[in-house]
Write a structure and sequence with these properties.
- By secondary structure, the protein is α+β, with helices and mostly antiparallel strands.
- Among the domains are: about 90 residues, Alpha-Beta Plaits (2-Layer Sandwich); about 90 residues, Calcium-transporting ATPase, cytoplasmic transduction domain A (Distorted Sandwich), CATH 2.70.150; about 150 residues, 3-Layer(aba) Sandwich (Rossmann fold); about 120 residues, Calcium-transporting ATPase, cytoplasmic domain N.
- The chain is about 50% helix and about 20% strand.
- The protein has 27 helices and 24 strands.
- The strands form four sheets. Strands 5, 6, 7, 8, 9, 10 and 11 form a seven-stranded antiparallel beta sheet that branches. The protein has a seven-stranded mixed beta sheet with strand order 12-24-23-22-13-20-21, with helices on both faces. A six-stranded antiparallel beta sheet has the order 14-19-18-17-16-15.
- Helix 20 packs parallel to helix 25 and helix 25 runs antiparallel to helix 26.
- The chain starts with 14 loop residues before the first strand and ends with a helix.
């Protein structure tokens, strides 16, 4: 069996029917294996559903047996109910699965805790020791052997330089009762010193430290690249004091129940409830719609949304450590714990081979009574090359991604992305820009031309930061027109604006706004309906008591997105699906233009998450791309969640496993290509390390390879595969996306 064969695994939260009889089904759900502590809660949650009579959970077989009344609830709904119940404990299941996986891995030395200065010191000390030992041999002095060798200058220097190796190897035996790579290295070094082969031990230390230095350097570059990417200035908000005055305070100083004031153009930085005022708030990150929502007293508002018009006072509900940014930073700090499955496989595989080395050393010595041959069995091992090269490859890959504005929160996501065959995309802000533009200008008659319609609309919208106003003003800039002189602008939140141009009152807004002033819109009824069928939002423009024209505004498709999707198909993505909260008509238009395989419209956040879970239940490896709070659940449940777009929210960044900081969709195929190349290099390293070290063991056991040559061969192969991994630091992601 190929040890690097692609592994198929059903998602931990996916539930699959295993056995069906009338009124009784058996469901397999891997998450149940890790949810024994909450089994009673799960059972009560299921049995409270109308139609379900009893539920029996087995954590050993991770099965649930459910009996139900078929006249009151169907089999698919029972399955969906269990998925919903289990998903409520998703964090617990994921964490315990990770803890169980980590316990199966041998305890290794953490290179990130060792300073570069100490590593350089060890390399210089070992190099100096090798030179001195070489000079000692030239003088004809015989090396000390046995216990006396421990007191010689060469023995003391060797043992002193290898102290971290002895410490790590000993701790692995004491804590986990399993040897690690350092345990074997320590045994080889000690045996070399006792047998008078101190130069071999010093060579092991010298070359091994160079390999570890290269790996640690790559890991350090990764941390710095991520730190630079997340660095940002302090966030400040306006807080209302008890005396009613406003003070500017740092977001970190806010407390629950503080009154925060948000003005036009400002980003809301807390989750809370409006206490006073009214405003038009851009919630495209929440509901996927670019049309702002009207917020009045007692309305909920969320961090990451933007006040477009008006001023509101918000009673804060979530602040401080509960903010999304704080959680992002914490997750990034813990990213090093998110090992790729192949890293865990490398650790387990190499740790199992340690026993092979020990067995071979004992067997060779028993058969040949030759210490040199037995030493080669200890010096030449697989662990160092497999472990260090894999760590270096993923660290280099994450560094390269961060340098190009892509944050990868763990090496496991690189491996999973390379296996992904299904891509789910949000529409608004992901496939589209999230920035509406004027697509159509339709005058009522020849008395007022298209340019004048735009000019009148711009006069009324000049001071507004509403997305529709921004689209109109941008159209003015494109055409080079000038905004006519006008009077004071009056805003009716959620409906429209009005001002005075010359002697006439100009109004710009929706149909309800026009009708409230007895301005009839029926002359443009048919044209408005046609624009609506094309997915455009309608804005009426009136002068005096008559409609003079209408504007059709839509959210344009993101540039290069279709090209990116075509590249993704080339990268091996077979199924591309669009999910959106928009209506069927608008969804169909975008899906057609982007040549989606499938699409679903009018999707709530939980609907998107359920779609992802159903795809995973069919053994699809799902990547999800989104930008808003409405995508957060789907991003979290996907095998790989990717946050994309300049307008992405902190919640989306937190839920996502990969965040693309820029606004270029071509980074999607670029990160896919990087993940594929990374896994290719990891597999090259596996093949090289196993081949070279197996030859070394064979030649050493036959007595054809001296101990010193064996040490050089083993450590040189380690440096070779680590160096091969470092090629990823030179990978050009721009070449993939242009």
């Amino acid at each position: 069996m190929n040890f690097l064969a692609r592994r198929k695994k059903v998602h931990i939260l996916a539930c699959v029917l295993r056995h069906v009889v009338q009124g009784r089904i058996r469901i397999d759900c891997h998450a149940l294996k890790y949810l024994q502590a909450v089994s009673r809660d799960l059972q009560e949650r299921m049995e409270s559903i109308n139609g379900i009579t009893s539920v029996t959970l087995s954590h050993l077989t991770h099965n649930a047996v459910v009996t139900f009344d078929e006249s009151r609830i169907s089999q698919p709904k029972v399955l969906l109910a269990l998925e919903h119940a289990v998903s409520a404990y998703s964090f617990t299941a994921f964490r315990r699965e990770r803890e169980q996986t980590d316990r199966a891995v041998v305890e290794e030395r953490n290179l990130s805790e060792e300073s570069f200065l100490s590593m350089f010191g060890t390399i210089i000390g070992a190099g100096t020791g090798l030179i001195l030992m070489g000079l000692q041999r030239r003088t004809g002095l015989m090396p000390a052997m046995g216990l006396s060798a421990l007191h010689s200058s060469g023995g003391l220097l060797t043992l002193g330089l290898s102290a971290p190796i002895f410490k790590s190897g000993g701790q692995a035996l004491i804590h986990s009762r399993r040897p690690n790579a350092d345990t074997l290295s320590a045994a080889a070094i000690l045996a070399s010193v006792l047998s008078g082969a101190a130069p071999s031990a010093m060579t092991v230390i010298f070359l091994h430290e160079i390999a570890e230095l290269l790996t640690a350097y790559t890991m350090d570059k990764t941390r710095k690249a991520i730190s630079d990417m997340l660095s940002q200035g302090e966030d400040y908000v306006w807080r209302r004091t008890r005396a009613g005055q406003l003070e500017k305070v740092a977001l970190a100083d806010l407390m629950v129940d503080d009154l925060v004031v948000a003005h036009t153009g400002e980003k809301i930085s807390v989750d809370g409830v409006v206490t006073t005022g009214s405003a038009s708030v851009d919630e495209s990150a929440i509901n996927g719609e670019f049309m702002p929502a009207t917020k009045v007293k007692n309305a909920e508002v969320f961090a990451g949304t933007v006040v477009k018009d008006g001023t509101i006072t918000i009673r804060s509900v979530k602040v401080g450590d509960d903010t999304a940014v704080a959680r992002i930073i914490k997750m990034v700090e813990e990213a090093a714990d998110h090992k790729a499955p192949i890293q865990n496989f490398a650790d387990r595989f190499s740790s199992q081979l340690l026993f092979v080395n020990l067995f071979l050393a004992g067997t060779v010595f028993a058969l040949t009574r030759n210490t040199a041959r037995a030493l080669n069995m200890l010096i030449i091992d697989y662990s160092c090359a497999l472990r260090l090269s894999t760590v270096a490859a993923f660290s280099a890959s994450i560094t390269t991604a961060a340098r190009n504005g892509v944050l990868v929160k763990g090496s496991n996501y690189i491996e999973t992305l390379s296996e992904s065959d299904t891509l789910v995309l949000d529409k608004t802000g992901t496939l589209t820009t999230g920035q509406p533009s004027v697509e159509s200008i339709i005058p009522v008659n020849g008395k007022v031309g298209a340019n004048e319609v735009v000019q009148l609309a711009a006069a009324a919208e000049e001071t507004s930061s509403h997305p529709l106003a921004t689209a109109i003003l941008n159209k003015m800039l494109e055409t080079g027109l000038k905004i006519p002189a006008h009077g004071e602008i009056k805003v009716t939140v959620g409906r429209g604006v009005e001002t005075k141009v010359g002697r006439s009152i100009v109004r710009v807004g929706n149909k309800r706004f026009m009708n409230s002033f007895d301005i009839h819109t029926h002359p443009l009824r048919e044209k408005a309906a046609n624009l609506a069928m094309e997915g455009q939002s309608i804005v009426y423009v009136s002068k005096g008591k008559h409609v003079v024209g209408l504007l059709g505004i839509s959210d344009p498709l993101r540039g290069n997105m279709k090209k990116a999707i075509n590249r993704l198909r080339y990268c091996g993505v077979d199924d591309i699906i669009m999910l959106t909260g928009d209506q069927e008509q608008q969804a169909e238009i975008v899906a057609g233009r982007m040549q989606m395989d499938r699409y679903k419209s009018e999707q709530m956040p939980e609907d998107k998450a359920n779609t992802v879970l159903k795809l995973q239940a069919n053994e699809a490896k799902v990547s999800m791309v989104g930008d808003g709070i409405n995508d957060a659940a789907a991003l979290a449940y996907a095998d790989v969640g990717i946050a994309l777009g300049g307008a992405r929210t902190d919640i989306a960044m937190e839920a996502a496993d990969i965040t693309i900081a820029g606004d270029n969709p071509m980074m999607l195929p670029a990160i896919y290509a990087l993940s594929t190349k990374t896994m290719g290099i990891v597999k090259q390293n596996f093949t090289t390390a196993i081949t070279v070290n197996s030859m070394g063991l064979l030649l050493g056991g036959m007595g054809l390879l001296p101990v010193l040559a064996g040490a050089i061969l083993h450590n040189a192969s380690t440096i070779l595969v680590v160096g091969n991994s470092l090629r990823l630091l030179l990978h050009d992601m721009n070449a993939t996306r242009t």
